[in-house]
Amino acid sequence: LDTGINYTQVDFEEAARAATGGQGPNLIVDSVGGHNLEKSLRCAAYRGRIVSMGSVGRDNYKPDFSVMSGQNKTYVSYYQGAELMVNGERARANVARLIDDVAGGDLQVVIDARFRLSEAAAAHALIESRQVFGRVILVPDDKAVDLG
Question: Is 105 within a domain?
Answer without folding.
Answer: no
